Amino acid sequence: MALAGNVSKGVDLSRWEIVIGLEIHVELLTDSKVFCGCATDFGGEPNTRVCPVCLGLPGSLPVLNAKALEYAVKTGLALGCEIAPFSKFDRKNYFYPDLPKAYQISQYDLPLCRHGHLDIEVNGEKRRIGITRVHLEEETGKSLHAGTSIVDSPYTLLDYNRAGIPLVEIVTEPDLRSPEEARIFLEELKRVVEFAGVSDVKMEEGSLRCDANISVRPRGETRLGTKTEVKNMNSFRAVQRALEYEAARQVAVLESGGRIEQETRHWDEAAGVTRGMRSKEQAHDYRYFPEPDLVPIVLTPEQIEKWRQELPELPAARRERLMREYGLPPYDAEILTTSRKLADFFEEAARQFPDPKMVSNWVMGELLRLLKAEGKELDQVNVTPARLVGLLQLIRAGTISGATAKEVFEEMFRTGQEAAAIVERRGLQQISDEETIRQLVQKAIAANPEAVESYRKGKEKAIGALVGQVMRETRGKANPQLVNRLLLEALGKPGQ
Amino acid sequence: MEKLSQEQVEHVARLARLALREEEKAIFAEQLGQILAYAAKIRELDLANVEPTAHVLGLTNVTRPDEVRPSLSQEEVLQNGPEVQDGYFRVPRIVEEG
Amino acid sequence: MQIHELTLVEATDMLERGELSAAEVINGLYDRIEAVEEKIKAFLEIDRERVLREAGTQVPVAIKDNICTRGWKTTCASRMLANFHPPYDATVVARLRRQGHAVLGKTNMDEFAMGSSTEYSAFYPTRNPWDTERVPGGSSGGSAAAVAAGEALVALGSDTGGSIRLPAAFCGVVGLKPTYGRVSRFGLVAYASSLDQIGPITRTVADCALALNWIAGHDPLDSTSLPEEAPDYRTFLRPDVKGLRVGLPREYFGEGLDSEVRDAVLAAVRQLEAGGAKVEEVSLPHTEYALAAYYLIAPAEASSNLARYDGVRYGLRAEGEDVVQLFSNTRSRGFGPEVKRRIMLGTYALSAGYYDAYYLNALRVRTLIRRDFDRVFEKVDVLACPTSPTVAFRLGEKTDDPMQMYLSDIYTVTVNLAGLPALSVPCALNSEGLPIGLQLIGPPLAEGRLLQVGYAYEEARGPFPRPRI
Predict the structure, then answer these.
(1) Chain B partners of C286 at a C-beta cutoff of 8 Å?
(2) What is the pLDDT of residue A30?
(3) CATH of the domain at A460
(4) How many CA atoms lie within 13 A of C163 on its CB side?
């Protein structure tokens, strides 16, 4: 591993163009597997979501899950693809212990969807990335390795609970021009499939995975360089890092007069390097042929149109609309559309409250902060849009201060109680009674002659000590605007 | 084609995950050659404009509703397993091959 | 009265009238099995006690050992699956059990249904009850021999390129290969999925109609199962062929056909003619390419279907230092020579550089063969021809010459390639006392018509002799 670690340092990439194409696998969110009735839920004891079909027992036969077909087509529609009027399944033959039938039911020459695209924005520039194809196939089982990696494990354990979960494979054109662009593309793709309602795209549970083909060529060159395939990248961040490393490695090889070998390379996250597979490289020969156990899929324009109509608004359109309808800045629209649930949450709240920007601030601020701190998803907590609106109304009515509101929100986040109830029970209402505050102001003036003195000499900041005293007396509940006004009235203009 | 070459037989055997003995390789080289020579008969036909038939039925769009059905018990899943451990099937180490 | 001399229809009627119990039928058949099985070797697994425990109310059915049966091993006559216990019943078995039929036993076959003689069973060959020095045909040789020998009144077989009809012809019994998709394949261990079909083997055509009633119909577990409702096939059993148009395909009476077989089949056709059928010669011009296409398509599908036997989840497991070695060692030890030969052939036909020339072109030939039949069935109602070019051959005669063995299927594979139904009915004994089969072929879903013609022929022919064992 002579190249490991420092290869990317000292390589000048400016004379080179990077060319990247991605192959993404996304698990679809059906209740049952793609070719049998076993449940798709995550977890559970090993080999308990398994039947003769997904275990590949002799004699078993697949039957296509209608929902999986619908979701695969919807994925294609969400990516602007043409939907094939005639499509079929093929067998991809290869031996691997996690592949129960020693072939994967997939699609070869007639995929469900082709010729799509996805628009992204990279450093302020709009880029259109071509989608070559989207097809439906089945997931493999899971291997558990005894050692630290596949290669040095003395043995492997196999669990087929995941075998047969429906997958779409999304293949892009080699249109991506930097590792950063690849990451941004993946983030947008994740949003699109999540908005389309076809997957919950949890990378940590492996429901979205990505392999990349990458090559480099001197700027101005139109022919493609020899590519390598990079695998085993487990986060969007890892994709960018791995591709940055690999691009630099290829440039280093080429600049030192070497040749790029067409090969598969594994990303080693801990070491921060890609590693070629040591074994003899022999080209795969998957011996595809039409799956005789499944019949072709024929989709009418009416059916395709119906599914298109059912597609919810996708992230790009939603971002535009959030800006237009609620007057939000682009930054807010971007953050609020990181997931469909978040955008839905915002909109439901914004519809019930006259100040959308204030709603946006609270969603992006306190709500996301607490979700992140607790490591939770929006649907796992007790805050609802209506409850957030309840809180905002208390702020707007002057019942509680902003600072108090954060405290109330945190409790609401944990307990799911209404803001008003929390405020009531804990006695957090703001004191806005003029007479009460006037008395406290007088008391503060009397107790702080020095501060009064320096204020009168023109040191405006000195008033802070007086405000602080009033707030202390009321344990933060005094209406700060009112305290300020009454203090100013009592003291007159500074310097007088 | 009269006979398959040793390399062809070995390549196909590797694809099919069959460890053949030397004498099996020799016999297969001979027999597969004969059978393929017989099969080559179909090249006499002009097939350029003939659609292939993968399915004889003409059925399309056979699907099932997305409903969960009972799985086998773990015991039934593992009952035929040659080597099992802690609810898993067990195999020796995996070497990556291309 | 001897149970094993009853027809299926007779036994069924007696059970329904209460003149016989399922246990008596089982004991009668097991007595016969005990008497003759040593000579015939039709079964891989028998168990009188278990069958009596699960007796049901109807005639028990012998099941080819590539059809999954809960509680019985399903070995496909392979070392690979010598100890395989399926945790589920094939749809046909589940249907039989629901209707009160027990599994009588599991019958011998060529390993994974690849063969035409049952000599490729990994365990032992089955003998032909008419002459135990001869093969029963294959691959459903155990099922056909069991019925011919009176060890079963009905058996299920599977037919990928003739595996029901050929042994039926060699053993002098009736065998039906239904239209592709008429009988569920769920639970049938796949050999060549686009060609495989389960069907009954019985002693008479009427028995065959009854058994087909039990197993035919739509199955939501098989995507290639036909949605049409199956009729009551017994309603077709009328000895009437008046006006029926019978085609004699020229290509099935050419070179390589044994003259005694030819004469017997033509004599049978004349009997239909005497009954009022109109006979004419027809042509299926692409017949000569069928066997070539078959021996590309079937092995290609088989190479994929049999890839799952890798020693991980079930079946034989050979040792290996790593997974690749384990796979290769397991598969080399678990499969017999014919299975390896077809896996090699199919892998080659699908591999890069050869796919178009072999596999894809074979699928094109399949189209031509279908069109031949479509055209002919505009003119005639059924086709009549020999099931096999010869009578049963001697054990060992063809085992070393795969091409000679494959030629046994020359009159049967076309039907599988086109997905059509076909019935083999015994029509004569040759000069050596060996049975000859008449094959009747119909258009898709014409099982009823085939049974009607077969029944009419049987009535005209009179009772067929039984082998002396």
Answers:
(1) 45
(2) 97
(3) 1.10.10.410
(4) 31
- Look up C303 and say whether it is catalytic: no
* Contacts with C343 (C-beta within 8 Å, 6 or more apart), sequence order: B16, B18, C299, C302, C303, C306, C335
Q: Is B1 on the interface with A (CB under 8 A)?
A: no
Q: Specify the DSSP class assigned to residue C229.
A: P
The CA-CA-CA angle for residues A426, A430, A432, to 5°, reads: 145
For B56-68, the pLDDT digits (tens) are 888 999 999 999 9
Give the C-alpha separation, A218 to A223, whole Å. 10
Q: Are B50 and C368 in contact (CB under 8 A)?
A: yes
Q: Across the interface, do C300 and A289 touch by the CB < 8 Å criterion?
A: yes
Which ranges of chain A have pLDDT less than 70? 1-10, 147-152, 203-204, 278-283, 493-496
Whether C278 is a known active-site residue: answer no
Which residues make Cβ contacts (< 8 Å) with residue C459, sequence separation at least 6?
A: C239
On chain A, the residues whose CB falls within 8 A of the CB of C362 are none
Same domain for A256 and A338? no
Burial class (CB in 10 A: 0-12, 13-18, 19+), B79: middle
For A233, the enclosing helix (H) or strand (E) is: strand A228-233
Strands, E, within C312-408: which ranges? 382-386
Of residues A419, A422, A432, the one with CA closest to residue A393: A419
pLDDT tens sequence across C238-269: 999 999 999 999 999 999 999 999 999 999 99
Enter the pTM of the model: 0.90
**Number of domains making up chain A:** 3
Q: How many domains does chain B have?
A: 1
B19 assigned to some structural domain: yes
Terminal CA-to-CA distance of chain B, rounded, Å?
A: 30
Under CATH, which number does the domain C3-251+258-283+376-461 receive? 3.90.1300.10
Q: Provide the 3-class DSSP secondary structure of residue C350.
A: helix
Q: Is C177 a catalytic residue?
A: no
Yes or no, beta carbons of C324 and B95 under 8 Å apart? yes
ipTM reported for the complex, 2 dp: 0.97
Query: Residues near C270 by Cβ (< 8 Å), separated by ≥ 6?
Result: none
